[in-house]
């Protein structure tokens, strides 16, 4: 049973077809990478799957832990917000989009626990400190404000905030974009370890083929609002069938 499925997804921005009859599936515990150049529609697809954008046509179905399917875009807004605080998580390219910069690092992590109903201060603080450790942030930074953190630390803090409630599904939008190469490598290794250990399913948007190869079980290649090729990551990248995928892969090899 799929965890989330999109069928016949269409969306236009004026005359531009951002999504053109897209079908996509994600299975429990799977990491799916959506790759393509800028303007290919990959971030639009991520936002439609997560309910942040409503398609002009098509349907997104999410299967809850009880096996019941829900039409994401037919859900009342409060129910969708609850889903994002519980079963789902979102990791932005810019962590400032989800972090509260005037709240302590521990407070940022603890807020998500409180949104799930946690009320015991000592337990919340202990879990926050534990998760800061899991993302390689020293416990003595628990009361520091995020604005004192480096870019890599901010991204790791966002990951701790997102994963502290053990979501079933995480949407990741270019999670290593804009970071130095050495910081990217450390962060990618951290994401891969945590996602595998927790058995989290993820939809990962990236323009970086190397990131997709490292993190994803399957890959979907997008061009001009369409998925032109999909399959197991190594199969697609080692033996690309579509001319556009071949171009993407060859450009990486030549770089």
Give the oligomer, counting copies of the same chain as homo and different chains as hetero: single chain
Please compute the radius of gyration using only Cα atoms.
18 Å
Q: Name the helicity range.
A: 25-40%
**CA-to-CA gap between the ends?**
40 Å
What are the segments in which pLDDT stays under 50 over at least 5 consecutive residues?
none
- Stated plainly, the CATH topology of the largest domain is called Rossmann fold
What report would you give on this structure?
This protein is α/β, with parallel strands linked by helices. The chain has 2 domains: 4-87 and 167-254, Rossmann fold (3-Layer(aba) Sandwich), CATH 3.40.50.300; 99-166. It is built from 9 helices and 10 strands. It has helices at 42-49, 77-85, 105-115, 121-134, 151-163, 181-198, 209-215, 233-238, 243-254, and strands spanning 4-13, 16-26, 31-35, 57-63, 69-71, 88-91, 169-173, 201-206, 218-223, 226-232. It has a 6-stranded mixed sheet with strand order 6-7-8-3-9-10, with helices on both faces. The termini are far apart. The model has no long low-confidence stretch (mean pLDDT 93).
Summarize the structure.
The protein has 255 residues and is an alpha/beta fold. The chain is built from nine helices and ten strands. The model has no long low-confidence stretch (mean pLDDT 93).
